[in-house]
Amino acid sequence: MKLEILTKNDHQQLHNDIIAKIRDLINNKNLEPGDKLPSERMLSERFEVSRGNVRETIQKLEFYGILKSKPQSGTFVADIGLVAMNGMIDDILALEDPDFKSLVETRILLELKTVRLAAKRRTNDDLEKIEAALESYKVKVLNNEDAVQEDLLFHLAIAQACRNSTINRMMLIITPEIINNFEKYHVCDKNQGPKRIKEHQDIFNAIKEQNTQKAKEMMKVHFNELYKYCYNI
To answer: Tens digit of pLDDT per residue, the chain (233 long)?
Structure first.
């Protein structure tokens, strides 16, 4: 099979095409909840796309609760009715890519809750991971290097510490888009490195102290520039 080199829009359209074909397969074969889908290889050959794209699409449908994969067993139709499944797939196909401002706004809303949960639930292992991400961020900033990825890895470490798999997954979904567009939209001033380091340190300290309210307040301080960007303050 030929190597697929796709733009972002092409990639999205390909996934939508595969989703529609999986929906048609389920409908035409009268598959019911618990019924098994053909293997990734068979779907790849049937749809004439790569197995990687089939796998990514299945993972997307798993996220929305339409399919369910079982290790060593395969992929199955989830326990939802046919009408509900078709309605959900129609909604998925109608989704538009979020604009950058809405991604940042979502990040703010998520993280104000996430940091409180992290402060409450964190383990010593979580603290080590957050601190390691913080140290990597400090090194990049103090060397005047681009630290956007290290910044977001720090926040992802906090998301892991909150012990909520849904929040963690949502952060993983929106993070790549934020990384790709942070510089493009000039959200934060590059010359405020020392200030950003202190903000990160304050957040870490609050999580370490398990002070949930202080953790939230420190995150709000850290998001000051994002508030300005999102709400034209």
So the answer is: 333 444 556 778 899 999 999 999 999 999 999 999 999 999 999 999 999 999 999 998 988 889 999 988 999 999 888 888 989 898 888 776 667 788 888 888 999 999 999 999 999 999 999 999 999 999 999 999 888 888 889 999 999 999 998 888 888 877 767 766 665 655 566 667 889 999 999 999 999 999 999 999 999 999 888 888 777 75
Which tokens belong to 14? 């390909």
Q: What is the 3-state secondary structure (H, E, C) of the chain?
A: CCCCCCCHHHHHHHHHHHHHHHHHHHHHCCCCCCCECCCHHHHHHHHCCCHHHHHHHHHHHHHCCCEEEECCCEEEECCCCHHHHHHHHHHHHHCCCCCHHHHHHHHHHHHHHHHHHHHHHCCHHHHHHHHHHHHHHHHHHHCCCCCHHHHHHHHHHHHHHCCCHHHHHHHHHHHHHHHHHCCCCCCCCHHHHHHHHHHHHHHHHHHHCCCHHHHHHHHHHHCHHHHHHHHCC
User: How far is 172 from 155, CA to CA, in rounded Å?
Assistant: 10
| pTM exceeds 0.90 for this model | no
Which residue is associated with the tokens 């999580």? 207
Does residue 158 contact residue 133 with C-beta atoms inside 8 Å?
A: no
Note the residue count of the chain: 233
